[in-house]
């Protein structure tokens, strides 16, 4: 966002306030990816002018449910059983256009299903490219050399090549149509190199494949921005993908278990149903940001002691970027000389105006690279009590904790709303009223059939007292485009329901 545009937004925001009757106030939030001048976390707006939001319930539901997706997965596809019963996804934009993306696909040449959530920053280009390409890289890396040899032979003969993935696309999904053939060519180069190396004759394990695919795709994104391409459009796209960035959280599920590869601050959480019917959140990823002490130590250890105070300052990488791992973001990876050389060598057909925001090297840029896309891969062996997996961008987790998300989905799934006993302490009348309102709200039949929508509704509409507030939700959804990003982030959620019966011990 340019400084001039930000100034205009702040001037408009300074004369506005949001008002509703749920004992909660909306506050400015810091912009999640790269910092933007003037966005000050926790600062309330002026009361000089009220903004009148009049969205009714039908309009609210229409906005929330516009991007819903629900897909049932066959329990047997002719080759193997599926660990996934169905999944539900949704996203809600704050940025224009939305910088979040999500993907889902069944592996056709190996067992398993893949899901990914991608949170872009500095623009949507990198998230778009990664969402289209990363799952294919993972799937190719898991294939045996014999299968890859067959793919290559078919390509050489000009014959139809069998699909590697069965994609589950939503009608609203966008794609880089002009780059599709180029991406296929790059994917072929990837499997040719796997064949040349001759390792992993049976294919990589899911953990190895995910680690290799993350690193390789990030390398490809970097190289594609440096080399000549066949058209100005391809070159412009490659530059925008490389200079913007995105975090990624990808899950591979098969009958044995769940592998989660995470780079950045998206998150994966498993919903576990205990013997007493209660729900427990089991984290399957760790956030890579300044709130993670181990991650902070990892990043600082890669640079001289003289940079300890500047590598991460004000909880941001070089004072700018919140996630400490990401795809793209070459302004945190390339040397100053390489950045300058690539940008100066662009042909006249490339839209330089669209790249102006990327010309600024971060402060204290002394010993690059400061950033990488190496994922942290965690594994969980499936158990009968494991019921669903939630993947979400940080826009979801900024608004609710993992346990709250699992509780919401679990109660949505089971229809049973467990209520904690009332404390022995004497409650004041106001406190008792709040408690009764929260219990009444939890016992009400949910508006949304889609669990991902249910999460987003509660993420944006829950008041300070923990109850769903229709007025707050309507106000959040009615925010003008130029103000929405000051109050919330893009929100994406995918809920994957597991075939728990397949994890139960078989009786003799």
TrEMBL record:
One MF term in the entry's GO annotations: metal ion binding
Domain PPM-type phosphatase: 83-498
Keyword Metal-binding appears in the UniProt entry: yes
Keywords assigned: Hydrolase, Metal-binding, Protein phosphatase
Gene Ontology CC: mitochondrion
CDD domains assigned: PP2Cc
Highest taxon of source: Eukaryota
Coiled coil: none
Family under the similarity heading: Belongs to the PP2C family.
Protein name as annotated: PPM-type phosphatase domain-containing protein
Species assigned in the record: Gadus morhua
Gene that produces this protein: pdp2
């Amino acid at each position: 966002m340019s400084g001039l545009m930000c100034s205009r937004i702040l001037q408009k925001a300074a004369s506005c306030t949001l008002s509703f009757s749920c004992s909660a106030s909306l506050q400015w939030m810091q912009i999640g990816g790269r910092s933007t001048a003037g966005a000050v976390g926790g600062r309330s707006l002026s009361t000089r002018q009220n903004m009148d939001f009049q969205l009714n319930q039908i309009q609210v539901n229409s906005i929330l449910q516009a991007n819903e997706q629900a897909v049932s997965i066959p329990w047997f596809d002719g080759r193997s059983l599926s660990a996934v019963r169905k999944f539900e996804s949704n996203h809600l934009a704050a940025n224009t256009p939305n910088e979040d993306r999500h993907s889902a696909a069944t592996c056709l040449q190996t067992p398993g299903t893949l899901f990914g959530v991608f949170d872009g920053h500095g623009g949507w280009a990198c998230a778009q490219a990664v969402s289209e390409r990363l799952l294919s890289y993972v799937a190719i890396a898991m294939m045996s050399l014999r299968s890859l040899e067959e793919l290559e032979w078919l390509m050489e003969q000009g014959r139809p090549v069998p699909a590697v993935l069965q994609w589950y696309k939503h009608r609203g999904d966008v794609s880089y149509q002009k780059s599709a053939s180029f991406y296929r060519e790059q994917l072929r180069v990837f499997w040719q190199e796997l064949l040349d190396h001759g390792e992993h004759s049976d294919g990589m394990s899911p953990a190895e494949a995910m680690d290799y695919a993350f690193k390789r795709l990030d390398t490809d994104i970097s190289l594609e921005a440096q080399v000549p391409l066949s058209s100005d459009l391809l070159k412009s796209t490659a530059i925008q993908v490389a200079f913007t960035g995105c975090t990624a959280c990808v899950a591979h599920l098969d009958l044995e278990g769940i592998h989660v590869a995470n780079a950045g601050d998206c998150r994966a959480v498993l919903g576990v149903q205990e013997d007493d019917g209660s729900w427990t959140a089991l984290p399957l990823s760790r956030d890579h940001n300044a709130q993670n002490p181990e991650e902070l130590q990892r990043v600082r250890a890669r640079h001289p002691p003289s940079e300890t105070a500047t590598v991460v300052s004000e909880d941001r990488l070089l004072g700018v970027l919140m996630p400490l791992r990401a795809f793209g973001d070459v302004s945190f990876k390339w040397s100053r000389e390489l950045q300058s050389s690539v940008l100066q060598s662009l042909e006249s057909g490339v839209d330089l105006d669209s790249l102006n925001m990327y010309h600024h090297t971060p402060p204290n840029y002394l010993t690059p690279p400061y950033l990488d896309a190496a994922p942290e891969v965690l594994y969980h062996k499936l158990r009968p009590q494991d019921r669903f997996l939630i993947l979400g961008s940080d826009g979801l987790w900024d608004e609710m904790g993992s346990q709250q998300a699992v509780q919401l989905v679990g109660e949505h799934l089971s229809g049973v709303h467990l209520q904690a006993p009332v404390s022995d302490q004497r409650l004041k009348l106001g406190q008792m009223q709040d408690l009764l309102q929260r219990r009444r709200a939890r016992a009400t039949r949910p508006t949304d059939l889609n669990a991902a929508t249910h999460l987003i509704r509660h993420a944006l509409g829950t008041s300070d007292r923990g109850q769903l507030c229709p007025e707050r939700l309507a106000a959040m959804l009615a925010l003008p485009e130029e103000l929405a990003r000051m109050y919330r982030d893009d929100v994406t959620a995918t809920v994957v329901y597991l075939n728990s019966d397949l994890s139960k011990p078989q009786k003799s």
